[in-house]
Amino acid sequence: MSKAAIPVERTALLIVDLQNDFLHPEGAYGRAEQRAPEIAALPERVKPLADLLRAKGGYVVSTQFTLVPAKGGEPLISPHLKQLRPFLTKGDFQPGSWGHQLVDALQPADLSVEKIAYSAFYMTRLEWVLRKCGIERLLVCGIVTNGGVASTVRDAHVRDFDTVVLEDACAAFSPTVHATAIDALRPVCRVASLSEVVREIEGA
Questions:
Q1: Which residues are registered as beta bridge partners of 171?
Q2: What is the H or E stretch that residue 71 is in?
Q3: CA 118 to CA 47: how far, in whole Å?
Q4: ∠ CA 7-101-149 to the nearest 5 degrees?
Q5: What are the tens digits of pLDDT across the range 64-95?
Q6: In the chain, count of helices (H) and strands (E)?
Q7: Residue 114 and residue 86: Cα distance in Å, rounded?
C-alpha cells in the first residue's frame, strides 16, 4: 500500500455513516440518548481533510445507512438491528429525509451511496461509481469502527482498493471497542492518523 503511487485525483475520502440521524441531537439516535462524545467530535475533526482533498482534486464520498420504507412507510429493519436498536421507527434513516443526510459540516459529498447493511459495498453501487470515477485509494473515516467501518474496509481490501483507515477519524460507542477494531484491521489495510495523511496530501 504505497503512500505515493496513487495520485490525489484518484483518492477518495470515504465517509461512513456520518448522518444526522446518528449524530444530531434531534436525530434518531440523539432522541434515544444513544450518543458518544468521540462520535460527536468526528465531523469537525474530519472537515479539514475533506476540504483539502476537494481543493486538491480528490473526491469526498458519503455512504448513508438507509432504512428502506415498505408498505405504509414502515421501515424494513433486520431482526438483529431491531433487537439492538428497538427505538428505530417510521421515518428514521429514510431516503431523502433530513436524518438520512450527511451532516452539514461535511457537505457536499461528490458521490453519495445508500447502504442497507454494515458494509457500504453490500448490494450497493459503491464499487461501480468508484471504478467509473477512477478512484483507486480510499481514506476511510466514520462510524462505527467495529461495524460499518470495519466491514467496508474488509470489502474494499478484497476488491483491491488501496485502503487507509484514519484511526483518529473513526469512532465507536466505546473507546475500547474502537481500539480493538482498529488493531483487527491492521493486517488488511494501512492505519494512519489524520495529520499524517494531511501532510502527505499537502505535499502531493
A1: 143
A2: none
A3: 23
A4: 55
A5: 999 999 999 999 999 999 999 999 999 999 99
A6: 9, 6
A7: 22
Is residue 37 within 8 A of residue 185, CB to CB? The reply is no
Q: What is the pLDDT of residues 10-47, one digit of tens each?
A: 999 999 999 999 999 999 999 999 999 999 999 999 99
User: Whole-angstrom Cα distance, residue 170 to residue 172?
Assistant: 7
Cβ atoms < 10 Å from Cβ of 41: 14
Task: Give the E-state strand segments of 155-200 in sequence order.
Answer: 162-171, 190-192
E-assigned strand segments in 111-189: 111-115, 137-143, 162-171
Question: Side chain identity at 129, as an amino acid letter?
Answer: V
What are the CA-CA distances from residue 202 to residues 5, 46, 61, 155, 191 (Å)?
A: 15, 15, 20, 28, 19
First and final CA of the chain: distance in angstroms? 16
Q: Which domains does the chain have, with CATH numbers?
A: 8-20+36-66+108-202 (3.40.50.850)
**Amino acid, res. 24:** H
Transcribe 92-105 into DSSP letters: TT-TTSTTTSBPGG
Q: Which three cell numbers stand for residue 142?
A: 466514520
